[in-house]
Amino acid sequence: MARRERAAVERLHGVTRERFLRDIYPRRKPVVLTGLELGTCTTKWTTDYLSQAEGSKEVKIHVSAVPQMDFLSKNFVYRTLPFDVFVRRAAEVKHKEYFLTEDEKYYLRSVGEDVRKDIADIRKQFPILAEDVHIPEYFEKEQFFSSVFRISSAGLQLWTHYDVMDNFLIQVTGKKRVVLYSPRDAPYLYLSGTKSEVLDVDNPDLEKYPLFVKAKRYQCVLEAGDVLFIPALWFHNVLSEEFGVALNVFWKHLPAESYDKTDTYGNKDPMAASRAIQILDRALKTLEELPEEYRDFYARRMVLRIQEKAYRNDYG
């Protein structure tokens, strides 16, 4: 079996906004930023403090009987709990009270008041906790899209996916392992929309996903206080090694009009990309009018034309 290529994500300490924008951002590669001023959240956000700060407001959570949560097969259920009860349960290993099993996993991904219209913004959904956080504003205020508050049980692993906006993953407490794949390796990730079908990136089923060995794996471990820059379109798979609290901050890298105005999660493809995919689908439908031999030939010509006109050849 071919050995998959691996690389560690670069870690940089005390990076200023100016250095980030000048030297790091243009490279469009993930990097872990350490030593940034994040506010008092890194020391204050214990389970006791979190429970008391936001009290018994109800939150909608994911609950899974298995550690690997899969959005494609929907191997989890949605449940509602008071925030203080949820925090304490998520911090437990074994539960006296549970929905599915005594070792079920919990995951909170904050949403807007109206999930169809409102974006996640910690200042609106968790205003008391927001006062403890200093978000590194390495982007212009008008570029801000959302700030997503996340809490995960120890051992929880989230599906591999990409987002269409740049973001910082701020690890406030706990420890996470993050595995990333470049956008150029999309052909090897068996995509279904924005998500990869390969759930177990450590022990993939290579009979089912033989091309996965060609995808280069980038990896890092985030400790409390670390900030991971994830450029748009980079695939990422997150494993919470400990109970932890994190904050994702998304911002618009493209002009605002490039994005779908109905997108509240930051995961709908840019408008031009959506139109292009629709056109491609119509073209493929048109090819079905031809016999198989002709269909195969002209499909290959289409692929070559796309490669010639749209592929980059300057990846490092």
UniProtKB/TrEMBL annotation:
Question: What is the catalytic activity of this protein?
Answer: 7-[(3S)-3-amino-3-carboxypropyl]wyosine(37) in tRNA(Phe) + 2-oxoglutarate + O2 = 7-(2-hydroxy-3-amino-3-carboxypropyl)wyosine(37) in tRNA(Phe) + succinate + CO2
Q: What class of enzyme is it?
A: oxidoreductase
Give GO terms: molecular function aspect only: iron ion binding; protein homodimerization activity; tRNA binding; tRNA(Phe) (7-(3-amino-3-carboxypropyl)wyosine37-C2)-hydroxylase activity
Coiled-coil blocks: none
Residues annotated as signal peptide: none
Gene3D superfamilies cross-referenced by the UniProt entry:
6.10.140.1470, Cupin
Pathway field: tRNA modification; wybutosine-tRNA(Phe) biosynthesis
Kindly give the Pfam families that the UniProt entry links to this protein. Cupin_8
One GO-annotated biological process of the protein: wybutosine biosynthetic process
Q: Which UniProt keywords apply?
A: Dioxygenase, Iron, Metal-binding, Oxidoreductase, tRNA processing
Q: Which residues form the JmjC domain?
A: 124-268
**Protein EC:** 1.14.11.42
Necessary cofactors: Fe(2+)
What job does the chain carry out?
Answer: tRNA hydroxylase that acts as a component of the wybutosine biosynthesis pathway. Wybutosine is a hyper modified guanosine with a tricyclic base found at the 3'-position adjacent to the anticodon of eukaryotic phenylalanine tRNA. Catalyzes the hydroxylation of 7-(a-amino-a-carboxypropyl)wyosine (yW-72) into undermodified hydroxywybutosine (OHyW*). OHyW* being further transformed into hydroxywybutosine (OHyW) by LCMT2/TYW4. OHyW is a derivative of wybutosine found in higher eukaryotes.
Q: So what family is this one in?
A: Belongs to the TYW5 family.
Q: Give the record's subunit note.
A: Homodimer.
Q: What is this protein called?
A: tRNA wybutosine-synthesizing protein 5
